[in-house]
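INFO  loader      accepted 1 record
INFO  loader      residues=238
INFO  predictor   begin
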Amino acid sequence: MKAIILAAGHGSRLLPLTLTTPKCLVEVGGRAILDHQLDAVAAAGFEGAVIVGGYRIDQIEAHLRACDYGLPTDLVFNPFWSTANSIGSVWAARAYLEAPFALMNGDTVFDPAILRTAMAGGTEEVALLVEPLVDAGLDDMLVETVGDRVIAVGKHLVGHAATDRSLGLIVSQGGTAYAEALRAVIGEENGIHAYHHAVVARVAQGPGVTAVRIASGAHWQEIDRPEDIALWEGDHGR
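INFO  predictor   done
INFO  writer      dumping tokens
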């Protein structure tokens, strides 16, 4: 299984840190977000990683060349990073989507245990890692589940009752379900402005998506604003 890391965006909410630096290279606890991710990917036993870059991709390329994570890495360019939403980065990585993969946002750090859970996958071809919803934040991607089956995914679940929130970690054990749903969603009117979770929602309406819940106490943190850096460093004694 390969990790696919979506790291093309500007990260405007982390300004001024991202004024001259791509978001994935912003330091958290003295190391780039991407370093934390790739170390966790290697520790979890993935066979490689694909990083989708866009904004200041030359810096990402130089950073990858200078580091040894113990696993092969490929860098893919998303030329639509400034005009499309996150689905554009998934489209840029479409060549990798019929083999087993775990797709994650480039601004989220995970304990390796969470990534090992992701590798185990679920009973369906596609799985989404979730945790029980306590208090929904403004940026949370909400999920409705029944048992271990995903019913709906979105920022706003009109007509649905949110039970969980997504970690932004999507897993496929191989096959065409996810790639076919991607083509369908991005081909719709304004499809390039969709969040990539819209692909999961499409699969949930057809072949089905397994909700995989992380263990209680497993740690992850989305680094979206400067205060998120402080939260992570506080949790890790940095």
